[in-house]
Design brief:
With 201 residues, the protein is α/β, with parallel strands linked by helices. Helices cover 44% and strands 13% of the residues. The chain has a five-stranded parallel beta sheet. 25% of the residues are buried.
């Protein structure tokens, strides 16, 4: 039998019992590897994630504590990742429509992994883009220039009148889009793409 692909997964769920239960269920199926889990969006956003992942499982009730009802707005840095709601309580339909799919914890355990694989495989071809084909936004370019000039996150935040958290979020997006993780590498990228001159360094 052909070895199935491993889908790297992140779980964002306040209940430790549900987080652990989903992790156990998915990893038993052997098509999934749960790489990290968080109790809330803030702790997820505060982490610089390593490596690619294909799936975010998120409790949709968490969304109502943010200023958006659209999960894609909340996970704007992860456009090529499937975002699936963990459903076990009443959630506003408008919020649920913003997810790529729903994991109902009352579904049969053998059905859940198959449903998730179907969601991922249906959505990823349409979402997939190479890092080279993704343009940096103007704000990301501003932050990249500041990074190349040697500014720290707090200094960048003060200079651009944004929060340190927003700077970190944009830096994650820059790394994801460019595939470059080091400051020296990002500096070279900025130079080669004429975002900054040698004199400004």
């Amino acid at each position: 039998m052909k070895q199935s692909k491993k889908y790297r997964t992140i779980i964002i769920e306040p209940s430790e019992i549900i987080r652990e239960g989903i992790k156990l269920l998915l990893e038993k199926h052997q098509s999934f590897q749960v790489t990290a889990y968080y109790s809330d969006i803030q702790s997820f956003e505060d982490t610089i994630l390593k490596g690619e992942f294909q799936l975010i499982l998120c409790n949709p009730a968490i969304i109502k504590f943010h200023k958006t009802s659209k999960p894609r707005d909340l996970f704007a840095d992860y456009q090529n990742v499937c975002i699936v709601a963990i459903l076990y309580q009443h959630v506003d339909t408008e919020i649920l429509h913003g997810f790529d799919g729903i994991l109902d914890i009352y579904d049969d355990g053998s059905v859940i992994p198959k449903k998730l694989i179907k969601i991922i495989e249906t959505l990823q071809p349409a979402n997939s883009q190479s890092a080279d084909s993704v343009e940096l936004s103007n704000r990301e370019k501003d932050i990249l220039i500041a990074v190349a000039k040697g500014l720290q996150n707090k200094e960048i935040a003060d200079k651009l009148n944004i929060s340190t958290h927003t700077v970190i979020s944009h830096r994650k997006n820059i790394v994801r889009k460019t595939g470059i993780k080091t400051v020296s590498g990002l500096t070279l990228y900025a130079l080669f793409n004429s975002l900054i001159s040698q004199d400004e360094l």
